[in-house]
């Protein structure tokens, strides 16, 4: 019985140590100088910017106004007004965008809107399609950099997509902003420094028109972007990180909106991690697809709050077993995981997060993680499987 208990606790410690090791390596690599990106010389490829929008009347104009000055003759700006009940379509037309309206109460979600828009663009196909969410601001020069990176690499390109805490936000939103920075800047920068691909992040994604035939966009998947990235990688087109192109957005200003957004993202991530990761591991190793393996290993890193909770729980359990039965190896592994995670977070904050959150505020992160326990219990009890739009301040 003692050996069995020691083995079980050791397995738990290993399950925590592996993803912690991944994020530790990613943070270390991210602190090295960034690698140069493949770009094309000469004229920029003809692009179509595709903006899926569901009841985004309050912000659609700001989004389009950040895109239009970057377009050239022959480019297209298409808004898919998806199951809208507000003035999104009319406002987009007034801003000079091409607009198509889609209505289907049975098929809801961003994937269906993207598929609808791609089929509409086929009447005059561009060279590159760039997807921008309707609540995002596109940084100056981002369209050109993304299109150039996509064509130069021959692969899908992912912009640096950051989310900011609105002015006056509660501490939990500031901590969420830092966690987002680790996920969407630090970790993909680290993998890119090693020449490895990144996950697709939903906004600021650029695709060669011919490559879109490799994936099936029409789905209501909670994290359609994550799924799409793996589909491309399996077909020999691993996404490349393009941090010189920046896309930004803001966390919802309401507790309901923030809760809905977190639940959709994290339940979607955990669902893919548990259901798809084993198959992806087998496929990548059996086919020698090391880019797919790198993306799968990255997928196996759970959200930072959950990883912190799991590390703390296993650390406590391992040392309890050491006291009771003398199992030293699990305690050492769990201690190594806690130390590596702490160093990774502090290093990421020191190098990339100082302007986002103070050190004193960062010390409250463990309490933020504890408050997310109901979200993770909800995944076990009643997982969210349908797409639900996050509520904003005004609706």
From TrEMBL:
Family matches, as Pfam families = Glyco_tranf_2_3
The family database entries (InterPro entries) matched by this protein are listed as:
Nucleotide-diphossugar_trans (IPR029044)
Q: Does the keyword Repeat apply?
A: no
| Membrane-crossing residue ranges in chain numbering | 290-315, 322-349, 361-381
GO MF annotation list: glycosyltransferase activity
Q: Which UniProt keywords apply?
A: Glycosyltransferase, Membrane, Transferase, Transmembrane, Transmembrane helix
Q: Which family does it belong to?
A: Belongs to the glycosyltransferase 2 family.
Q: What is this protein called?
A: Glycosyltransferase
Organism this protein belongs to:
Pseudomonas laurentiana
Write the lineage as a comma-separated list. Answer: Bacteria, Pseudomonadati, Pseudomonadota, Gammaproteobacteria, Pseudomonadales
């Amino acid at each position: 019985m003692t050996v069995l208990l020691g083995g079980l606790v050791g397995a738990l410690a290993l399950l925590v140590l592996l993803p912690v090791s991944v994020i530790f390596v990613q943070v270390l690599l991210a602190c090295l100088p960034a690698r140069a990106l493949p770009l094309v010389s000469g004229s920029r490829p003809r692009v179509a910017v595709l903006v899926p929008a569901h009841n985004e009347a309050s912000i659609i104009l700001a989004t389009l106004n950040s895109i239009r000055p970057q377009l050239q003759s022959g480019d297209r700006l298409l808004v898919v007004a998806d199951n809208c009940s507000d003035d999104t379509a009319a406002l987009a037309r007034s801003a000079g965008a091409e607009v198509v309206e889609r209505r289907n109460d049975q098929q809801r979600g961003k994937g269906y809107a993207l598929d609808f828009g791609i089929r509409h663009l086929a009447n005059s196909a561009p060279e590159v399609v760039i997807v921008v969410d309707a609540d995002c601001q596109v940084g100056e020069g981002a369209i050109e950099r993304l299109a150039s990176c996509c064509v130069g690499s021959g692969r899908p390109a992912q912009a640096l997509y950051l989310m900011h805490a609105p002015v006056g936000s509660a501490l939990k939103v500031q901590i969420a902003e830092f966690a987002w920075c680790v996920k969407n800047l630090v970790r993909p920068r680290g993998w890119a420094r090693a020449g490895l691909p990144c996950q697709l992040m939903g906004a600021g994604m650029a695709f060669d028109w011919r490559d879109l035939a490799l994936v099936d966009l029409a789905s209501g998947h909670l994290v359609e972007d994550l799924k799409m990235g793996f589909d491309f990688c399996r077909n020999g087109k691993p996404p490349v990180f393009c941090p010189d192109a920046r896309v930004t957005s803001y966390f919802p200003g309401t507790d309901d909106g923030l809760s809905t957004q977190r639940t959709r993202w994290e339940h979607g991530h955990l669902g893919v991690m548990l259901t798809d990761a084993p198959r992806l591991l087998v496929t990548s190793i059996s086919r020698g697809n090391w880019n797919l393996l790198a993306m799968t290993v990255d997928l196996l890193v759970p959200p930072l709050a959950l990883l912190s909770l799991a590390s703390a729980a296993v650390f406590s359990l391992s040392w309890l077993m050491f006291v009771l039965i003398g199992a030293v190896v699990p305690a050492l592994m769990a201690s190594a995981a806690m130390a590596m995670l702490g160093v990774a977070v502090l290093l990421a904050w020191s190098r990339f997060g100082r302007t986002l959150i103070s050190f004193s505020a960062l010390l409250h992160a463990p309490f933020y993680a504890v408050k997310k326990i109901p979200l993770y219990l909800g995944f076990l009890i009643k997982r969210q499987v349908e797409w639900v739009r996050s509520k904003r301040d005004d609706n």
